[in-house]
Amino acid sequence: MRRDTGFPAADAENDFLRARRRQVLSRLATWLRREPDDVNIMLPFHEVVEALGYLSERRRGLQTIRLDSIVGSVDRTRDFDRRFRPTSARVRERWQRLALAARRGEAVPPIEVYRVGDLHFVHDGHHRVSVAHALGLAVIDAYVTEIVTRIDAHGIRHRGDLIVKDYRRLFLERVPLSGEARAAVLLSDPWDYAELGEHVEAWGFRLMQDEGAFLDRPTVALRWYQEEYVPVVDMLRQADLIGDRTETEAYMWVAAERYRLIRTHRWDSTVIDAIRTSRRS
């Protein structure tokens, strides 16, 4: 919270010291709670874009953005934490100079950010963002460049979430689903995307053998979703076998159980009954 003593220089110095103290306490609290190391680490822009798959970019001009939407940086991830609190005294001189200017009511230039989904990453203006947070502001002016990616940024909170996004992107390159199908196939464990990709490719290979014709990846993906995935998920839902999993996780589990118990790739009531009996035993 901003505090005014009537001496802007002293207030700016106190602002920095308070921000540093909060950063240290936050790091200590994270350690005491045994939370993952990436909880307070700023998201690196290039890693996020690589995980999501870069397509294009376009300038959006000067906009007012929310400070809490700024979650990362292009190249200054070590100087500030996730909430843009300074991680050392290295940035102190410039930080206090900007805080003093802000307290005196001087104009502060807009920052420059990249936008990925509804997340923003600072290209220029890290100190200004940090000072704005320390002074309790909610918004800041920024020149925005929007990045368009292959998959959306929804669900990214910490650096560890990028692993899931990266494996999902690779899965969608192997199994190019679109529209409703793309949104429906979701997994929590990133490694499961690799396993599901192998499963769909094997399914497509058997389909091509049966039909004696080559099918490209988009065709295999669509037919797998319509002819295999949707009917199986419907049966699992009716048999109350989904539980607290995602539908895709339930599909993968039951597909493995089907082959283990029945040694076949078909789906019918006998398969469902065998799996239900196996789960109870």
Describe the structure.
This protein is an alpha/beta fold and 281 residues long. It has ten helices and six strands. It has helices at residues 8-32, 45-52, 92-103, 126-134, 161-174, 179-184, 190-211, 217-238, 247-262, 269-280; strands spanning 43-44, 54-66, 70-73, 111-116, 119-124, 139-149. Strands 1-3-5-4-6-2 form a six-stranded mixed sheet, with helices on both faces. The chain is elongated, with a radius of gyration of 25 Å. The relative contact order is 0.10. The mean pLDDT is 83.
Number of strands: 6
Tell me, rounded to a whole number, the average pLDDT: 83
Shape assignment: elongated
- Order of strands, main sheet, comes to 1-3-5-4-6-2
Helix content: 40-55%
**Biggest β-sheet description:** 6 strands, mixed
> Which regions have little confidence, pLDDT < 50, spanning 5+ residues?
none
Structure in a nutshell:
This protein is of the alpha/beta class and 281 residues long.
Features:
single chain; 281 residues; alpha/beta; 6-stranded mixed β-sheet; 10 helices; elongated
Explain the layout of strands and helices:
Elements (H helix, E strand, L loop, with lengths): L7 H25 L10 E2 H8 L1 E13 L3 E4 L18 H12 L7 E6 L2 E6 L1 H9 L4 E11 L11 H14 L4 H6 L5 H22 L5 H22 L8 H16 L6 H12 L1
Parallel strand pairs: 1-3, 3-5, 4-6
Antiparallel strand pairs: 2-6, 4-5
Helix pairs in contact: 1-3, 2-5, 3-4, 5-7, 7-8, 8-9, 9-10
